[in-house]
């Protein structure tokens, strides 16, 4: 009788183990995937900010990344605090406006620490490579854009120029269209 109850107990234990262990593994897998997805999002955000940190003009990717910090790093108070300080320093009326690069370095440093890049120094974060070619290419594009805009805004068509009052009226119409 004693042996029968032990075997019954072992049999019930085996049945429960076969039923419960896959559920535990499944739940553990889901938790691992969630943690990995959050870390991947944090890493992607950090890499986007690093890649675009001194781009001129600033890129849409840079702005989008900044605007997602509160979500992606929602559980990291140090990163979110550094983001608030950097955000405040971006306002031209802020007393810290002239030092906003220092606040950016603090933000990127906090993110690096959160992502286990603990040996990444602020001097390394501040270092940025941009060949002169990119700057001169952008300058040429801006000059070309401004010149095309000037010609188009002063023209009725490709062959007729606008008078000054026509130009001002046309300019105001274009500005109103861009505000809509």
Description:
- The protein is mainly alpha-helical.
- It is 74% helix and 0% strand.
- It has helices at residues 2-51, 60-67, 69-72, 77-89, 100-114, 122-126, 132-153, 164-179.
- It is elongated, with a radius of gyration of 29 Å.
- The N and C termini lie far apart (87 Å).
Question: What labels would you give this structure?
Answer:
single chain; 180 residues; mainly alpha
Task: Summarize this entry quickly.
By secondary structure, the protein is mainly α. The protein is built from 8 helices and no strands. 12% of the residues are buried.
Write the SSE topology:
Layout: H1 2-51, H2 60-67, H3 69-72, H4 77-89, H5 100-114, H6 122-126, H7 132-153, H8 164-179
Helix pairs in contact: 1-2, 4-5
Overall geometry comes to elongated
Strand content: under 5%
Total beta strand runs = 0
Mean pLDDT, to the nearest integer, reads 82
Q: Look at the helices and sheets and give the structural class.
A: mainly alpha
Count of helical segments? 8
Radius of gyration: 29 Å
Contiguous runs where pLDDT drops below 50 for at least 5 residues = none
Fraction of residues in H or I helices: over 70%
Q: How do the SSEs run, as a string of H and E? A: HHHHHHHH
What is the assembly state of the chains in this entry? Answer: single chain
Distance between the termini: 87 Å
Q: How can the largest sheet be summarized?
A: none
